Amino acid sequence: RRWVMAQQDAIEGVDTEKRVSDYEAVLELDALEDTFTQAKIQDNFSNYSAWHSRTVIFQKLAQAYTLAVTKGADGSEAAMTILDRILGMVEGDVELAVKVFFCDAEDQSTWLYMNTLLQAVRDLVVTVAPLSGEDDGEQLECLNEAYVAAIGHIVDCCTTLIKDATATAVASNAGLSDAAREASSLFTFQELKLEGLREGTNGVKWPSWLLYTVVRDHTGVVPPSTMDVRQLLASLYVVDPQRRGYYLSLIHI
Predict the structure, then answer these.
(1) Which of 204, 201, 227 is nearest to 216 (CA)?
(2) How confident is the model at residue 21, as a pLDDT?
(3) Are the CB atoms for 140 and 129 separated by under 8 Å?
């Protein structure tokens, strides 16, 4: 859809870069895209293209917001308007993603999108912080609060899913599997809590992966009670055997 629109702009001689600076045009376009992609996700939450399009929406809003902030007082009104849209999108998408995770923890589309969104929000906070003046302090605080809240919700969701899946595995399997025993040795970490986990254990791979990336990429924001990185890698080592060499290499980085 966006590719078609870009081609149409090229034919009509529209300056797409100028659209970023025209925040009203950005908001109007992204409102249409927001409605379109949400409808597609409601029809099928495995729609990777729809989730990816939401990544593009956020990127456009982030660019427009950053530009408005750099204009100081002249861009203050625009910045507030765009920030409201950004905050609404982050809160809404996190809420929607959590619902999807609990419906189907094995579908990768939403997990990949949420990882990208959290990184984009972090990058936006880092980018606008040095650009913000005294009058922008409240906006920056709201953005940072939204970022912290999003991380908290995702951590809680992933932790719950992992614990539930592990409890189910423990109930149906006695003792450590060969893979879990091997992981306990390789990762040399006590209390790995790998009991019952076996290759292909449902509901562990993607929440463990996202939680690992959150712990790795969002230092200082993740709650202190979050699972240890090595414990997460050990779980991934067991349930995702095709990437065992990769997970083992990460423990040494």
Answers:
(1) 227
(2) 53
(3) yes
CA distance 52 to 38: 12
Split at pLDDT 50, 70, 90, the class of 103 is: very high
Q: What is the pTM of this model?
A: 0.84
Q: What is the pLDDT of residue 223?
A: 82
Amino acid at 57: I
Say if residues 54 and 93 touch (Cβ distance below 8 Å): yes
DSSP codes, the chain = -HHHHHHHHHHHT--HHHHHH-HHHHHHHHHHHHHHHHHHHHH-TT-HHHHHHHHHHHHHHHHHHHHHHHTGGGGHHHHHHHHHHHHHHHHHHHHHHHHHHHH-TT-HHHHHHHHHHHHHHHHHHHHHGGG--GGGHHHHHHHHHHHHHHHHHHHHHHHHHHHHHHHHHHHH--S--HHHHHHHHHTT-S----TT--TT-TTTHHHHHHHHHHHHH-TTTS-TTSPPHHHHHHHHHHH-GGGHHHHHHHTT-
Q: Which of 95, 113, 99 is nearest to 52 (CA)?
A: 113
229 touches 215 (CB < 8 A): yes
Residue 174 identity (one-letter amino acid): A
pLDDT in tens, 195-211: 678 887 778 899 999 99
